[in-house]
């Protein structure tokens, strides 16, 4: 361990894959040559919190973390609310969506394309009895849901259901959909939706096509769409390989993943999160089937698993664990490597959900954010009263000042209402 004397000089020289930061008791910045990824911590964020839930969606937009929808056990079990979390201020606030959030939002499929989100399917409670096959375009600025109408009423459409995977190809301006279930059967077909023609089409299956399943994870890497994990009624899929769909040839292939040389493979799972950041795919949480009892149990990993996508090899960061194992939660990553995790089921036997929020850095935090974390302890309330010009005159960088000003305006708007 050593202290940084010249912050800017040392910071520029750091290899982000080999160092991590922390503040010591004297308020000085410490650099460690250990692996970068830090422990996942529970956020202390005050009294105003979203209700405990599972099966909801999450995304980052304009420096804030959003969640909406989900399932809450009880009379009002299908949630149609939205919440926004400001990481810089460690503060949740309820958001009034521009339109009503669809009722069938539980375990819906979604993919983010810049300032828009495409959402398909989902179920209401009870699962499997109120399924949807509707496709929405969501404006993230206003959180408005617009139903995309099909060009033809007789066109082929995916079976109503939940737990699908949805992605977008910028090259051909199409959405692709696979997997999912209606609660009884699992979708075997692969669908393609043309955003220019507003029409679904079924793609020809091939021998390497992904095995039917639900609540798997998917991601796009170098013109390929990868599917991994997931489950069925009495089955969860392992992590020894992935199915890759090539957007150019529209063909599938099976991609084996090499094990970690010491720890092998992570446990099979469904209802987990996969987070793509740079050339690494991190997996978090989930549940797996016990073959003896045919019951699902929460996955308890010994560390944070990730795939080195350049070498298609599993790696693990030992000791980096979720404080509370969960499945069917919501997670998203910011451009700077900050992962935020919310909710999920934390007790399968009692079917209990948690309202907790966790944060995990998988990159060196920007120096400006590290400094802000220290400054706001002393001046947080004062900053909320200052206009943007005075915040910048105080010395805050423009990016931080604009986010603080946006948060302050939001608080004032709430008070006026």
SSE layout and pairing:
Blueprint: E1 2-3, H1 7-13, E2 20-23, E3 29-32, E4 41-42, E5 57-61, E6 64-68, E7 82-86, E8 91-95, E9 109-113, E10 116-120, E11 135-139, E12 144-147, E13 165-169, E14 174-178, E15 191-194, E16 199-202, E17 217-221, E18 224-228, E19 231-232, E20 235-236, E21 241-246, E22 251-256, E23 273-277, E24 280-284, E25 287-290, E26 295-298, E27 303-308, E28 313-318, E29 330-333, E30 338-342, E31 345-347, E32 352-353, E33 357-361, H2 367-383, H3 388-394, H4 398-416
Antiparallel strand pairs: 1-3, 2-3, 4-33, 5-6, 6-7, 7-8, 9-10, 10-11, 11-12, 13-14, 14-15, 15-16, 17-18, 18-21, 19-20, 21-22, 23-24, 24-27, 25-26, 27-28, 29-30, 30-33, 31-32
Architecture overview:
Keywords: Kelch repeat, Repeat. This is Kelch domain-containing protein 10-like protein. The chain folds into three domains: 1-36, no CATH class; 41-361, 6 Propeller (Neuraminidase), CATH 2.120.10; 366-417, no CATH class. The protein has helices at residues 7-13, 367-383, 388-394, 398-416; strands spanning 2-3, 20-23, 29-32, 41-42, 57-61, 64-68, 82-86, 91-95, 109-113, 116-120, 135-139, 144-147, 165-169, 174-178, 191-194, 199-202, 217-221, 224-228, 231-232, 235-236, 241-246, 251-256, 273-277, 280-284, 287-290, 295-298, 303-308, 313-318, 330-333, 338-342, 345-347, 352-353, 357-361. The strands form ten sheets. The chain has a four-stranded antiparallel sheet, with no helix packed on it. A four-stranded antiparallel sheet has the order 5-6-7-8, with no helix packed on it. Strands 9-10-11-12 form a four-stranded antiparallel sheet, with no helix packed on it. It has 417 residues and is mainly β. 39% of the residues are buried. The protein starts with a strand and ends with a helix. It contains four helices and 33 strands. 12% of the residues lie in helices and 35% in strands. Mean pLDDT is 86; it is low at 1-21 and 29-38. The longest helix is centred in the C-terminal third of the chain and has 19 residues, at 398-416.
């Amino acid at each position: 361990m050593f202290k940084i004397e010249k912050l800017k000089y040392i910071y520029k020289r750091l290899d982000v894959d080999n160092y991590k930061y922390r503040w010591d008791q004297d308020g000085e910045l410490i650099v460690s040559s250990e692996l970068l990824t830090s422990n996942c911590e529970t956020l202390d964020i005050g009294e105003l919190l979203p209700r405990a839930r599972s099966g909801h969606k999450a995304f980052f937009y304009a420096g804030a973390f959003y969640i909406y929808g989900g399932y809450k056990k009880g009379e009002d079990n299908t949630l149609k609310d939205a919440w926004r979390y400001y990481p810089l201020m460690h503060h949740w606030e309820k958001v009034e969506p521009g339109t009503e959030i669809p009722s069938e939002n539980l375990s819906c499929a979604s993919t983010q394309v810049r300032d828009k989100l495409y959402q398909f399917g989902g179920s209401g409670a009870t699962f499997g009895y109120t399924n949807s096959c509707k496709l929405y375009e969501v404006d993230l600025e206003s959180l408005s849901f617009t139903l995309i109408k099909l060009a033809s009423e007789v066109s082929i459409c995916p079976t109503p259901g939940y737990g699908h995977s949805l992605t977008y190809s910028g090259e051909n301006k199409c959405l692709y959909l696979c997997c999912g279930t209606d609660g009884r059967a699992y979708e075997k077909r692969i669908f393609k939706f043309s955003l220019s023609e507003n029409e679904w089409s079924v793609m020809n299956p091939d021998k390497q096509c992904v095995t039917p399943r639900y609540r798997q994870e998917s991601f796009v890497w170098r013109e390929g769409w990868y599917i991994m994990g997931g489950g069925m009624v009495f089955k969860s899929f392992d992590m020894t390989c992935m199915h890759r769909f090539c957007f150019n040839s529209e063909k599938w292939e099976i991609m084996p993943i090499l094990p970690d040389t010491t720890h092998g493979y992570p446990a099979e799972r469904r209802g987990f999160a996969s987070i793509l950041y740079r050339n690494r795919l991190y997996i978090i949480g989930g549940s797996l089937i016990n073959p003896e009892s045919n019951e699902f149990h929460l996955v308890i990993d010994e560390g944070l698993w990730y795939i080195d996508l350049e070498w298609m090899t599993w790696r693990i960061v030992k000791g980096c664990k979720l404080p509370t194992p969960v499945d069917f939660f919501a997670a998203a990553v910011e451009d700077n490597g900050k992962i935020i995790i919310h909710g999920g089921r934390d007790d399968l036997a009692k079917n209990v959900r948690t309202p907790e929020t966790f944060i995990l850095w998988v990159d060196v935090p920007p120096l400006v954010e590290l400094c802000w974390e220290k400054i706001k302890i002393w001046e947080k309330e004062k900053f909320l009263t200052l206009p943007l010009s005075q915040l910048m005159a105080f010395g805050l960088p423009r990016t931080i000042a604009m986010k603080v000003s946006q948060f302050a305006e939001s608080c004032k708007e709430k008070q006026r209402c």
